Amino acid sequence: MNQRIILVEDEEHLSRGLQFNFEADGYDVTVFDAGEGALQHLESDDEPDADLIILDVMLPGISGFETLKRIRESGRDIPVLLLTARGAETDIIHGLDLGADDYLTKPFALPVLQARVRTLLRRASRGDDAGPQLENFEIGDVTVLADRFELVRDGTTYPLTAKELGLLLLLYERRGSAVSRGEILQEVWDLHPDTKTRVVDTFVLRLRKHIEPDPSRPRHIHSVRSYGYRLEV
Ligand code: CA
């Protein structure tokens, strides 16, 4: 079955062009010109959930931010790529804090968006875009299948986004040592180390739910006060 992309974009010439190109790449694309429509689609039991959402920030009606917030509040961890205005760094940070997995600033080149989409969806489409071989590793009772963008716990498989895996790989490479928030921001999100954002903490909370036997008393991903995080396997 084709992977499904939901595109929320009110600029019709742009959404038509993107739909045409992504369908040519073999994806099923559903387009909405407002966040409300996309949320209704996601909440409908008759419609299959999407594999990826491309979400414009500037929309009529509720904004892309509000749409993203409601998607995450509904418990959906579908990868979301935000389309933001150029130079609006505060928008980028706000979006990441709300749970976006990646962002692209407008105007963007189509091949860049296509590459970002492939990366976000890689766990399901590996093979046609294999990239470097990643090693699998264990954290407690959890096995991280890095090359598959998955982790396995008690026989259940959970998908990982590219950023979740990137964060885990960095902490694992430096296991036993504290890694600063600034370094994580730079390495995983390509942001300046001084960027004021809670995205690292948000992602650690997400990972703890999968990895920790008791997320409220972490045994593997430890907080290092005023500094960052330390992984103990
Ligand atoms: Ca727009």
Largest sheet: 5 strands, parallel
* Percent helix: 25-40%
Unreliable stretches (pLDDT < 50, length at least 5) are 124-131
The fraction of residues assigned to DSSP E strands is: 15-25%
Write down the Rg. 18 Å
CATH H-level superfamily title of the largest domain: Response regulator
Gross CATH architecture of the largest domain: 3-Layer(aba) Sandwich
Mean pLDDT: 90
CATH topology of the largest domain: Rossmann fold
What string gives the helices and strands in order? EHEHEHEHEHHEEEEHEHHEE
- Which structural class best describes the helix and strand composition? alpha/beta
- Helical segment tally? 9
CATH class value of the largest domain: Alpha Beta
List each distinct ligand once.
Answer: calcium ion
Please identify the oligomeric state. Answer: single chain
Distance between the termini: 37 Å
Number of domains: 2
Spatial order of the strands in the main sheet? 2-1-3-4-5
Shape descriptor: globular
Q: Count every beta strand, where a strand is a DSSP E run of 2 or more residues.
A: 12
Search tags:
Rossmann fold, 22% strand, 2 domains, globular, binds calcium ion, alpha/beta, 12 strands, 233 residues, Arc Repressor Mutant, subunit A
